[in-house]
Amino acid sequence: MKLLTLNFLTCARKTCKSTAAAFPLHPKEAELEQVEMELNPLFVKNMLPRLDWEAMKTLATELGLPNLPAETPVAEELANESGEPTQTLRDLHTLLMETAIASGKLVCGNCGHEYAVKEGIANFLLPSHMV
Ligand SMILES: [Zn+2]
C-alpha cells in the first residue's frame, strides 16, 4: 500500500474513530518496496493541501526515511520558473506514490490493535468481538 494511502486511514474500531491517538496508524516491522510510477505533477500539487502533513512527518520518521520539511511545501516550491517540476516535487512523488509498504503491520496508537499488511494489502477486518 502506498504511503499516501496511510494518510487517509484510521483504526477500524468504533471506539477509536473519534480519538486523535488512532491516527495515523504506526508501521511496525514494515518492509518497504519502490513501485515506479509516472510523475504527475498536478496530482501531487492537488494532493498536498489535503494531506495531514504532521502525520506524513510522523510516518517518514517511523519508517526511517529522510525527514520531511517542517511545513507542507507550497506551490512555488514545486515548479521552477519555467514550470518544470522541482526536486521537492519529485521527492514527494517518490515518497507518496512510489514508496509502499509491502508487508508488516499497522498499529493503532489508541487500542494497540495490529493490522497485518501482506503483499501490499492491509487487512482491516476485525474479529467480531472488536467491532
Ligand atoms: Zn484502535
Helix content: 25-40%
Number of helices: 4
Q: How would you write the strand order of the largest sheet?
A: 1-2-3-4
Enter the CATH topology name.
Answer: N-terminal domain of TfIIb
Q: How many domains would you count in the coordinates? A: 1
Distance between the termini: 23 Å
Structural category is alpha+beta
Quantity of strands, as a count: 4
Question: How much beta, percentage-wise?
Answer: 15-25%
> What is the radius of gyration computed over CA atoms, rounded to a whole number of angstroms?
16 Å
Q: Unreliable stretches, pLDDT < 50, 5 or more residues?
A: none
Which cofactor or ligand species appear?
Answer: zinc ion
Largest beta-sheet details:
4 strands, antiparallel
Average pLDDT level: 95
For the record, the CATH architecture stands as Single Sheet
CATH class: Mainly Beta
Q: So what's the overall shape?
A: elongated
H/E series, N to C? HEHHHEEE
Could you outline the blueprint of secondary structure elements for this entry?
Layout (H helix, E strand, L loop, with lengths): L2 H4 L19 E9 L6 H7 L5 H10 L24 H12 E9 L6 E5 L2 E2 L9
Antiparallel strand pairs: 1-2, 2-3, 3-4
This protein binds zinc ion (ZN).
Protein name: Multifunctional methyltransferase subunit trm112
Subcellular location: Cytoplasm; Nucleus
GO molecular function: protein heterodimerization activity
